Amino acid sequence: GCDNAIIIWNVGTGEALINLDDMHVDMIYNVSWNRNGSLICTASKDKKVRVIDPRKQEIVAEKDKAHEGARPMRAIFLADGNIFTTGFSRMSERQLALWNPKNMEEPIALHEMDTSNGVLLPFYDPDTNIIYLCGKGDSSIRYFEITDESPYVHYLNTFSSKEPQRGMGFMPKRGLDVNKCEIARFFKLHERKCEPIIMTVPRKSDLFQDDLYPDTAGPEAALEAEEWFEGKNADPLLISLKHGYIPGKNRDLKVVKKNILDNKPAANKKSDLINAPKKAADASNSQNEAKLDEILKELKSIKDTITNQDERISKLEQQMAKIAD
Q1: At a CB cut-off of 8 Å and minimum separation 6, what does 323 contact?
Q2: β-strands 15-20, 109-115: how paired?
Q3: Cβ neighbours of residue 148 under 8 Å, at least 6 residues apart?
Q4: Per-residue confidence at 28, pLDDT binned at 50, 70, 90?
Q5: What residue ranges do the domains of the chain occupy?
Q6: Total-model pTM
Q7: Region 281-291: what's the mean pLDDT?
Q8: Mean pLDDT across the chain, nearest whole number?
Q9: C or N terminus of the chain, fewer CB within 10 Å?
């Protein structure tokens, strides 16, 4: 961010385990992970795109003046490992480019779009290799397909509306309505409201459209934090949307902050006496948390019972109505 640093946390323990504070000399515009979590790429105010190995804490590749304009740029990793960037030329023309991180001397493709001050925000669908470009202050969304064939970045279409957008949010694929052939859903931020924008493919068939909905990334983590810090990589765990997305039981995440005093030598008896009340209070807090968890479980069980009874009553009422008719 504005402190020119990237910090990677273990949210389970509340620890900042990696601090990349010496790789950027100016503001970082955005950070993007690659598919298996081994690399990150950044776009910075110094006009550089950097590819970083966060565990080795070293820059693997970088491109100076990826876009020569002074306006902000963005960089994201694609599913195949290439990098997609948006920025500005010297003449303030908005540009998009495709890069191979193994050779960043020249872009694979470079396209100039139009002349405008609005920063282009890229939103990427890795399942279909479609990139949606939303410009701040624009009233349109352009979308492109990334392929292995020249010109590599293929323009598809433009969605236009009346009001300009101040910001944009993107729904994950598993949140879409597959029965309506919905391929993207945005949340457009206006000056006073947030408007959902739904994009669908017009098809009459009621069958599941496999070409629109290949297996997509699910909510389950492919690795635990400890495994990643040990050097393991893994692609996302994929799920099918054929029968719609059914949320599973959320895993409880309890942040247990490590005590830095744990690594110090044992304290003397006097300090033990001083800390005794604190330890007793901690034990009491743990007991209270356990009781609270039991109460919450009981409440959930009661709610489930009530829901089941409501369903049974509704069915009985329907049966009685049929008998009466």
Answers
A1: none
A2: unpaired
A3: none
A4: very high
A5: 6-200, 260-325
A6: 0.76
A7: 68
A8: 87
A9: C
